[in-house]
Write a structure and sequence with these properties.
Elements lengths: L8 H8 L2 H19 L11 H7 L11 H13 L10 E2 L8 H13 L10 H18 L6 E5 L2 H16 L3 H4 L7 E5 L4 H9 L7 E4 L1 E2 L2 E2 L1 H14 L3 E7 L11 H8 L5 E5 L24 E4 L12 E5 L2 H6 L33 H35 L4 E3 L7 E6 L7 H18 L3 E7 L2 E7 L7 H18 L1
Parallel strand pairs: 1-13, 3-4, 3-7, 7-8, 8-9
Antiparallel strand pairs: 2-10, 5-6, 9-10, 11-12, 12-14, 13-14
Length: 484
Amino acid sequence: MTNATSPAILNDLDADSTATSGALFTDLIARYLADTRDAKGPVSTSLAAEELSRRFEEPMPRSGSVLRDVVARIERDAIRDANHLMHPMYMGHQVSAPLPAAIWTEPVISALNNSLAVREMSPTLTAIETRVMRWLTDAAGLGARAGGTLTTGGTEATFTALLAARAHALPDSWERGVTAGAAVVLHGEHSHYSVTRAVAQLGLGTRAAIAIPSRDFRMDTDALAKRVAELAREGARIMAVVATAGSTATGSFDDLEAIGRVCEPHDIWLHVDGAHGASALLSLAHRSRVRGIERASSIAWDPHKMMLLPLSAGVLLVRDERDLDAAFAQQAPYLFHGDAGERIPDQGVRSFMCSRRGDVLKVWVALQRYGADGIAALYDHLCGVTRALYDEIARREDFQSMHEPEANILCFRWIGSPRRDDASLDQLNRELRERYNRSGRGWITSTVLEGRRVLRVTIMNPRTNTKHVTRLINGLTEEAQSLL
């Protein structure tokens, strides 16, 4: 019997497995990192969505191309007109300019391709995830019974946390479902949209999501205490209170200590959405922002934000690891083998995902390479540059800050001179942001705050410094003058 002829593509696989082929990608990435670090070229594209779409209008390739040509096309067609988060003038969304060692870890994760569904599929990475979760629960002060799991981000983490809260408050809900009016969830009016989305997806209905008013962009704890007392008198069941540590709009931190004191006498599950701000736990200068976080039943924490990891690397931590297991009360004997109580548990039983990428490796590598203190120093730097922007605006008469920054996010408004009405300023600030971003000299975001259109900056690049925020304000001023 003769062996069947191997398909020709196996030769391509062998050729692509060499260091020479890998160098095509690593050299490309190194060039990209160097160019953006040195602020070469525009921060983003000036092309419209339709123009970019036409670049990729082609039938599915039936035969392959030379790898070098494919890499060249990545550089020409994908990278050139992307948002360059490594550029120091990118001050846009809450997506990091990632740490280099974590970037280089990505191909290792892909090469191993171990799924963290169960320990037997990923023996070393499961052990690493268990250890990293212990580091983070210790940092949050959650105690010896705490545990956690990696998620795709804060949205999944908050959803999973509220699923655990539902199991705690309504233990029959997994089998029997949820009836109307069964429970409510209280949250700040500036909480992330994922909170009300999760309440609806859990079958409680959006009417069960009760917004607590804010004071200075933080949850009003007096209003919270009053609402909890009212609901208790009415006999309503409060499934959870969701506090925010580092809000999306302004980076504000709720008073977790005070909120915890409200929740504890009523045995209310306290979830802290610290997707953005929980990294303050690593910083001696800023950890007071999250004082009281140890009172939480669960915490969402995104290392892909202020720990500067590449997407995606989210985390959910719980005070009692058994609550995380109870959130997914499901049997799958072909995969899960009843290892509850093991020191190194299967992670798939406590996650929405079965096929779970080994993203924990880049978290572990980042901490090994830079240390918690090194990452904390970067956190402090990002907050310091944002404070410098706030101080720069305070010296100007043509700009107005909307709040004092608590982290690395600042909302402000171009007001110019002479003063204009709010409607005119809303339109001008909207157009100013669009013109500035199209110019290529920088990239910022915009939001609506207290009914007014404002400019929003998030400093997520360690190479952004005070000279860059001065350049930002000067650039916005020039665009505003041109606009008028």
